[in-house]
Known about the structure:
Blueprint: H1 8-11, H2 18-30, E1 36-37, H3 49-59, H4 74-88, E2 98-101, H5 103-115, E3 121-123, H6 130-138, E4 142-144, H7 158-171, E5 178-182, H8 194-207, E6 210-214, E7 240-245, E8 258-262, H9 264-277, H10 283-294, H11 298-320, E9 333-337, H12 346-358, E10 360-361, E11 363-364, E12 375-379, H13 384-399
Parallel strand pairs: 1-10, 3-4, 3-5, 5-6, 6-7
Antiparallel strand pairs: 2-8, 7-8, 9-12, 11-12
Amino acid sequence: MFDEIEFEKIKRLPKYVFAAINEIKLDMRHHNEDVIDFSMGNPDGPTPEHIIQKLCESAHKPKNHGYSASKGIYKLRLGICNWYKKKYNVDLDPNAEVCVSMGSKEGYVHLVQAITNPGDTAVVPEPAYPIHYYAFIMNGANVARFGIAWNEQMELDEDHFFKNLSRSLKETIPKPKFVVVNFPHNPTTTVVNKSFYTKLVDMAKKERFYIISDIAYADLCFDGYKTPSILEADGAKDVAVETYTLSKSYNMAGWRIGFVVGNKKIIEALQKIKSWIDYGIYTPMQIASTIALEGPQDCVQEIKSKYEKRMEILIKSFGDAGWKMNKPKASMFIWAKLPPCVQHLGSLEFSKRLLKEAKIALSPGVGFGEHGEGYVRIALIENENRIRQAARNLKLFLKNFE
């Protein structure tokens, strides 16, 4: 009998907490039960037509069918630079400061792989999108965590953040080389202003660490809020890179188009490792993505408005059903504290029971780390009628705990 060989890297990864919800959800669907699904941040709308047309046009040209540049075609990299200049007044070198990726998640994981040594330490505030810390763990690094705090307007408590970050930098051995930030935040929807990035960049220079900033939800902002870029801060390119994806702003989740921009040394490392690993995204998809960034942006406004309307309907209808929650300033999520009558269940058990008994699927907060306990993340991926149906189901469910 073969004595099986252990895969130590995979053993470091725990079972995905969300898997418990997904298994119940799939089983219910196999039994033809109608699940109202708010659990995944998977846009339900179509990609804008002008982007699809450009894809089709490009796909008919044989010259576009060969291998592509792993760091992205020049036309798209230039389009990314133009997008940053127009949106943030930030200048980027398309050759040295931009790398196209297969969505921001792939870009982030390969970035961490390229720049991390075994035994390094990164600081990842919690709650956190799981890959933000597990990318480091998969590559033999350690993660220092602390909980973030926010107010009712879903704005970051900066004093609390920098106090805890300073403590992590002083007390963690070895001293952290990397700090990961993600605003608008997934899962909490917390936002920051430009002053936050100015302080963070200054601290990075003083304490000698690199910053990885994720702005996947930058375009989904409400009530006059505008997401800043860390690259707007003076000297940011000395210490920081930023990741972005077209998935949310342009309903292009399945296209897997994202990018990483900023510090030349880090971008060079990412470009180099990608040159060994892949041959780049299908060229017509990159050409169409250039049109997404440089073409008319009214589609982004329409997508944003759709999420805002759903958000308002959900907050109103769920509130009437007995579950009060605050409106976020950005993202396609609502981060909701458990209703008082079910707080004793904890986020995972509450999510399981809500799914089984009310046919509503959510993401338990504990899946985003221990600092997410007591909350759930609600993704705004169901239409308005489905949201109202969920509210009716919720009202009946909560009556069982009165």
